[in-house]
Give the backbone structure.
Amino acid sequence: MLKKIILSILLFMISCTEKSPTYYYTIENFELLRIGSNLVDLVITPDGKMLIAADSGNNRVIFIDISGETMVRTANISVGSMPTSLCLSADGTTLYAGLAGSSQIAIVDVATQAVTHFQLDEDAPMDVEVFGDKLITTFISDQSIYHKTKMYDLQSGELLASKSKAGKLALDSVEGAVYVLDDSFERVNLYKFLITENDLTGNTQSSDIALHPVELNDLEFVPGTGIIAALSGTDFAGHELKHAFLFDPVELNLLAQFDVKSAPLAVAATPDGTSLFFSPSKADGAGTFVIEFDNETFLQRNYYLTAGKLSTGAITINPSGNFILVAVDDLADNSNDEPYSGNSFDIQRIKIEPIGTYPINDF
């Protein structure tokens, strides 16, 4: 069914005329797991069996079994105020959830689902990464001079390093480097720090990416490709940003821009890095699509129709590289009379088509 949907949409986009038919889709055309809340981040365990979603609206994380033909919610785990960022330990046994409504990181044992908390020395962590026994998190302030990226020892709780940058984080676990998409001092830049035993060292910096005001939507390190930054705002000429930025991981030079057609909300990659996937912020004439790009040509490879509006930062690819998992709002249960009516997201699973199935760049 999904292959037919994708093919129909591609033919529609390529050959659209005034006499072309209009295509309509119902919810039954999509594989959806109803959640109905403010889903803002997704991670998958290394074995590919469990999807974990941050449900900021209900102060919980949701465990979803994705190993079978249908997705099944298995647990709702209360973790604390406003979980907005998730990461897993390298072995997948421990989940870390940044609690934006508190001064803590929730630590969840994936097997037992027991919850403990790591105490921070500041409020409202924005993003979180873990490298071995080091926890790295960022704090955004109303005044950028107080922005911080901090590293703590997970065992002792000791603060090991503090840098005057803050924003979205991405981790290179092989080199032992953390990247910070920073919006301090009225501009957006990308920074790279090396993780040592007791410090964050180096100060590699990209050129200016954009000026305020912006929304930092997502940051992804893709081995063999680079660091991809997704943000909403305007460029230096005042035009709306409709592309994502790719930087090389060594000197942070700009390598390419991915033409998403609207501000990218989230980015993910297949485990081998050959395909990159973006959630656009706007629909086109036929619907809202996750867009797949080739990591070498930077050309669009496939379009995947979704059930509606997509969530910021909430897209991931399973370890086998054959499914997209994305938070989507079909708008069916929204009402202007409801509080938080724009945040009713569900989970959609989409099969990734093999390269060349629909050679859209050959037309």
About this structure: The domain at 2-12+32-354 is CATH 2.130.10.10 (Methylamine Dehydrogenase; Chain H). The first helix runs from residue 2 to 14. The chain has one domain: 2-12+32-354. Residues 1-18, 336-341 have pLDDT under 50 and may be disordered.
